[in-house]
Amino acid sequence: MIFNWFKIFIYHLKQNKLFSFLNVLGLSIGIAGVIFAILYWNNENAYDKWNPEKENVYQVLNKIGSTGDIWASNSIPFGETCKATIPEIESISFFNNTWYDDAPIKYKNRKIMAEKITAADNDFFGIFPFPIVKGAKTNILKEDNSVALSEEAAKTLFKNEDPIGKSIHYDNKFYTVKSVYHLIRPSSIEPNYVFGGVQHESDKTSWGNFNYGLVIKTKKGIDPAALLKKMQNVNFVNRTLKEAKENGQDVKQYVKENGETTVIIDQLDTARLHGTKSTPGRNFPEGKGNLQLLYIMIGLSLLILVLSLVNYINLATASAIKRAKEVGVRKIVGASKKQIIFQFIFETAIISFLAILFALAIVEISLPFYNAFLKKSLTMNGGEFYLQLIFIFGLVIILAGIFPAVYISNFETLKVLKGNFSRSKSGIWIRNSMLIFQFGIAAFFIIGAVIVNSQVNYMMNKDLGFSGDQVIRIPFNNPERNKRIDKYLTAKQEIRKIPGVQDISTFAGTFGNSTNSSSGFRHNGIFVQPRNVEMDFGFLEMMKIKILQGRDLSPQFASDTVNNMLINETLAKTINLKNPVNTIVTSGWGDGKGENAKFKIVGVVKDFHITGLQDKVPPMVFINLKTLKWNNFNNVYIKVSPGNLAETLAKLKAYWEKNINQDYPFQYEFVNKGFAKTYQEQVKQKDLFFILNLVVIVIAVFGLFALASFSMERRLKEIAIRKTLGAETDILLKELSKQYVGFCLIGFVIGIIPAYILLQKWLEDFAFRINVSLVPFGIALISLLALTLIIVLAKAYQVTKIDILKYLKYE
Fold first, then answer.
1. What Å distances lie between residue 401 and 128, 393, 565, 798, CA to CA?
2. Which of 17, 99, 347, 492 has the most CB atoms in a 10 Å sphere around its CB?
3. 405-450: pLDDT as tens digits
4. Is 581 exposed, middle or buried (0-12, 13-18, 19+ CB in 10 A)?
5. Residue at a domain's end among 677, 711, 746
6. pTM for this structure?
């Protein structure tokens, strides 16, 4: 029986080559989209799943003050006090904040530029228990001069030598290799080198120095809410209450004027995708997952699969008209309804199998581009993936096969044998409904693509308040922190002499990633936590950042390196300063000046975007590099002439490698290009919508062409009669196409509602965004109508050229 079914399937496959091909191709595109989404989903949800402690480990973050900024950084006294006073906490680990270092590491006469370097304390490997393959199993980082290496790093640095006990040189110090570990990916932290001695002596007693990433390991079965309450109380008692008493204030008044730090904890098991987003947005060194992009990809891929299934069902039920008599004859000779259902499900299974093979081929060919798009290394393997593939196969058969099979098996034997079925309205209303649904999905995608593209273009073209044209950022890798300013000022004079260099300056931060520090202060009874912009003279002028009131900091005024500062518009509004210039404010900076040091505002800076357009412009204060002597800057900004740029860069490279730091390679990045990284996720979403838009349109074209073909072929005798009676071609074209225009309009109305709601929700993530106008909806409507008319009229024109006598003699 199955063999006969297969022979029948092959026969109809040959008879309807085009529609069979469209069926398989449409389904394969939909399945390929779901496979891409599954690969991304599996990878993002696999983070830290290898870690047996994932449910007992929490990352600690802090919401500082009233500005709403959340930092994945902590102070040492806070962590140590929590460990000592909260019995639920088993251990804690500090590590080198939320980023890696890339730096030269030396072994004997061998030197490499190492990547993914971090520093941590002794409990690091108890919280991230990477398997130890060589060396000490416990107390690996107990001594400050200890280091552990991943297998890959050990092989790169030591070749075939045994690294255990060997001494390596990093950051002007020698470290002894204690262990080699096997790195398991994906993980929230994947370091190649973990050095001991992360804690600095100056930070061990300061509750206000938030310089370290902190993770805690709890006992099993604890209540996270109760733990969080106790940690918040530690902060309240040791900071808020203590400082309120020292200032002679009650707690409410103190909090009102100074703000309060709120503790946040995120479970490691869910932190990658569902954890609290910190202000820099990284949380752990491997970054935070983009849950929005993941949901978009899953949702859109499922939508395309549904579109493919609808397209298949539409084509299958339409083509079933040609098989109606076959079903009628089979019923007469004894075939049961159940047998007919199983036969058509069997045919669907074959088509689905072919579609999955085509889908896997599409994914395999496209995977390198997909990995480049996501910056990942996804592969199609693993038991979980194959189980998901089997599930997709079963789901497609059920959704695509059962309805057409039941629909066909319910044909009334006498009616179809008389040839009346094709003229019955009951045979077409479902297909028309599905065609309307396809138009709705297509409208959604076109509207979405236009709005996302408009938002990204808005972000790319918006006035940022600064000009990074021809300004390059060069890392200033000088490990001698206490001599950094002097070395920079010396280099500045020499670099100015290089032909093609127009200006040079620096500040403690990067455009797109904010500044390197933030300090709180209060004024007019208002507490604020602004970003500190420690900058060289001339920095604002070089970046074309405007001064609205007062003046810029200048070397002509000695006080500009002592107690003068600038503020931006946002800060002036936040602390209710209508005439800020010459106002005296109390700083929040220590550095020997005390908490009550007075600073005078000498100018107001026009707001500019130091972070991406997703964020509001933060309150900012601007001070000279010498004022605080923190030496937080780690980049030099140089404006170069566009003429002979290659020669200028070559001379800069030669100077840099000889005079700044010979161990580091010369690297540079144009400021505009660096800032563009702040909206690269949105560019990805724009590209994703564009690609999927093409896919949706292709599938919709398949369905519309096939249905128009079937519909018009059923009306060939009617067309022949109309032509005999004198109907003109334009009248026939109008008659044949008007119903599809109606379907298009109904589908468009259905599609605009979810498009508007979901895209408004998407735009809410941007502090600076476009307003949704009628333009995207107009573009979608015109596009759909044009597409419909081109396809339908082309097919309609073809059928109006039929041989009248042939179809008048039919039957």
1. 48, 11, 72, 32
2. 347
3. 676 666 555 555 555 554 445 556 666 777 788 888 888 888 988 8
4. middle
5. 677
6. 0.81
